[in-house]
Amino acid sequence: MTQDWDLTMRMVLQRREAYLSEHYIGLHFTVVSLALGTAGVTAALLLAAGTLPADYAVLFGFLWATTVLATITAFGAATVGSVLLPSRLPSISDLVLPLLIAICEFLLFAILAPQAGSDTAPRRAVITWYFLMAAFCALAAVAIARVGVIFRSARYSPDIRAHMHWYRRQLRLDALGATTTASLSLAAGFLHLGASQVPAWVSCGITTIIAALLVLASLGHGRVSNYWQAALDGHLGR
To answer: Which regions span the lipid bilayer (predicted)?
Structure first.
């Protein structure tokens, strides 16, 4: 007599095959959708308010665009790397880290909304933005390190082992880039906090460097995607 079970170990094992990668992809799709919605609202408020001094208006534009780049970079890393995650269930760090990064993304946009009150409000927003960017990049570095731990403990078949070793080297470069960007953002935050006034062109210059580092990271994700596409095509004999 055949028993129709509602749940079997085989069913759970089949679900586990892509559970971790689907978790990361699904979560980041949701996060980026909400973050871009917040970006649109913030941009509309900045354009409609017209209360910022001219130099701050330009700087806030730089900060807003850099936040968009940060969102794109985080999303690119998740979408490119998630497909390579091994079969396993997510741990608590796999749940918490993406959520903390998402909170930083929302705050990076929200802090740029027109500031009411004293004349020092825009300055406080700029200082807070740099510290938030430092936190965002530091969390990204921790998340990359976490992924590296997952890959290091995984077992690879011979046909993918060399490719995974290459990818793990790329992850170390990503972690270095995220740490560098976090350090620069943190230094910028303390610079603006300690100085009574920082010229807008200095702030724009620092923000441009941060944006350039984010662009380099995104280009690196594109290189990883191209590498794996070529590897898969080669495996399929195309």
So the answer is: 24-50, 56-85, 97-117, 129-151, 171-194, 200-219
Distance CA(132)–CA(107), nearest Å, equals: 7
Spatial separation of the C-alpha atoms in residues 116 and 21, rounded to whole Å: 42
- Residue 132 token pair: 């938030």
pLDDT, tens only, 177-213: 999 999 999 999 999 999 888 998 999 999 999 999 9
The answer to whether 76 and 219 have CB atoms below 8 angstroms apart is no
- pTM of the predicted model, to two decimals? 0.83
Q: How many helices (H) and strands (E) does the chain have?
A: 7, 0
Q: Residue 98 corresponds to which tokens in the numbers above?
A: 């993406």
What backbone torsions phi and psi does residue 90 show, to the nearest 5 degrees? -70, 145
Query: How far, rounded to the nearest angstrom, does the alpha carbon of residue 217 sit from its chain's CA centroid?
Result: 10
d(CA 142, CA 134): 12
User: Encoding tokens for residue 120?
Assistant: 């020092």
Give burial (CB, 10 Å; 0-12/13-18/19+) of 143.
Answer: buried
For residue 55, give the nearest of 204, 225, 195, 208 by alpha carbon.
204
Look at the block and give the residue holding tokens 């409000």: 121
Taking only the tens place, the pLDDT of each residue in 162-178 is 888 888 889 899 999 99
Q: How far is residue 48's CA from residue 110's CA, in Å, rounded to a whole number?
A: 15
